[in-house]
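stage 2 :: seqdesign
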């Protein structure tokens, strides 16, 4: 199969609505859209509703232009049926995921973590002769959430519990987002909610960007992980606190149930799950106990 673009040839059901390199746009047939939707769903659990067809087209179009592939159909066949296809998956995932976040996005959760959750977990661990707390940001994007956790722990927790080790983990489906997280360089938009004392202490300004300090960067380990893969989640081991904000909104009901059940299994007894403001476990899981904190809630595994 030839995967070079032909300016004169289009696949059935794919219509040029604008011409010329970066302005080229193809509209896929609804039948092909359902094929793409099913493929993405099986790989990631992300479900594109019918009204998201244009969004999917625009996201995939970037890869067609980059690869010089003629149509959405050819691109799907390229991924499914060629040796290079498995390597293209990382770029597909980058294209269909939205990685918009910023530091201290959910201040109430961070305060609950350092004021209530970590002291509670430490007390229980001491009773069991354990001295490590593991915290996982399960959709870490470009790192702002887990670095916010690291700053809070470094400022409010470490000196209180010098005998304890804190292991911070950040995972994401997007390799591009993870690469940005490892670099730790952010725009003014990303740091707009950072408390002034933290901005001075933990960031170095470079022109209009802010680089996070080696101290905070060194507290976090990043890795690629697909939340829809059961074994991948189980490989994370025993976790004390999981942050998984603004992820469930991309899943259908079955995917939500699957992912939350796996996160539940990954948590230690008395561990906590925090999700996004607009998300809820209602109708998804009854396994957790809802714990109220000022201006937020957590889901506890008992």
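stage 2 :: out
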């Amino acid at each position: 199969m030839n995967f070079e673009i032909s300016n004169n040839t289009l696949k059935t059901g794919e219509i040029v609505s604008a011409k010329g390199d970066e302005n080229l746009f193809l509209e896929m047939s609804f039948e092909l859209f359902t094929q793409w939707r099913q493929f993405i769903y099986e790989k990631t659990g992300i479900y594109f509703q019918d009204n998201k067809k244009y969004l999917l087209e625009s996201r995939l179009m970037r890869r067609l232009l980059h690869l010089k592939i003629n149509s959405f159909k050819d691109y799907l066949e390229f991924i499914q049926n060629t040796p290079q296809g498995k390597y293209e998956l990382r770029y597909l995932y980058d294209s269909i995921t939205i990685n918009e976040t910023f530091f201290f996005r959910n201040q109430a959760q961070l305060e609950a973590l350092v004021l209530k959750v970590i002291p509670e977990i430490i007390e229980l661990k001491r009773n069991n002769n354990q001295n490590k707390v593991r915290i996982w940001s399960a959709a870490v994007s470009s790192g702002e959430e887990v670095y916010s956790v690291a700053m809070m722990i470094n400022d409010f927790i470490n000196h209180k519990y010098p005998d304890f080790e804190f292991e911070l983990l950040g995972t994401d489906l997007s390799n591009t987002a993870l690469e940005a997280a490892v670099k730790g360089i952010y725009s003014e938009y990303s740091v707009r909610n950072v408390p002034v004392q933290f901005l001075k202490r933990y960031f170095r300004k470079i022109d209009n960007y802010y680089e996070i300090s080696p101290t905070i960067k060194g507290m976090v380990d990043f890795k690629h992980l697909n939340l829809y893969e059961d074994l991948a989640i189980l490989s994370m081991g025993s976790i004390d606190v999981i942050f998984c904000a603004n992820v469930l909104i991309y899943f259908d009901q079955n995917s939500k149930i699957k992912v939350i059940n796996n996160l539940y299994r990954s948590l230690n007894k008395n561990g906590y799950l925090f999700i996004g403001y607009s998300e809820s476990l209602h109708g998804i899981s009854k396994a957790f106990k809802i714990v109220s904190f000022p201006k937020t809630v957590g889901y506890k595994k008992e």
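stage 3 :: structure notes
- The first helix runs from residue 30 to 44.
- The two ends are 55 Å apart (CA to CA).
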